[in-house]
Write a structure and sequence with these properties.
Keywords: Membrane, Transmembrane, Transmembrane helix. This protein is mostly helical and about 150 residues long. The chain has one domain (about 1-150). The chain has four helices and no strands. The radius of gyration is 19 Å and the shape is flat.
Amino acid sequence: MGEFDNTLGALAVGFVVASMLFGIMSVQSYRYFQLYIKDPVWLKALVAILWILDTVQIVFIGHALYYWCITNYTNPEALADSIWSFNMGIFTTNSIVLIVEFFYAHRVLIVTKNIWLAGIIGLLSITYWGKYHLYLSEYVLLINRNSIDS
């Protein structure tokens, strides 16, 4: 199984690190709701949405890791297939990034009053998100097409 160190090994290490960071984020979210009671509802909702999305992302990647390492332990060809949970985990991760970058653009607008800079940040964020999802959809179609051909 040494030949899978660069694929499954990287995914396993990434999952462990992401799980630890999820624990830290959970504590920070809990403390936020305890300490900042007077914050606007939209900001509290944003924190809650990000926590929920991060939870879902951890579940998706954990499922993908289980599928490849446990369910298909004796089937290395399964690595050639893109499974739904891995794709959704990537989608969820990029959605989290988009939300955080929009919040950053909002803060830049408030602090600097520079609508052009905030607009550029927002535009680049949407462009990256759209480009990545176009790439992901093409990748999934390619993988599925190859699975059908073989």
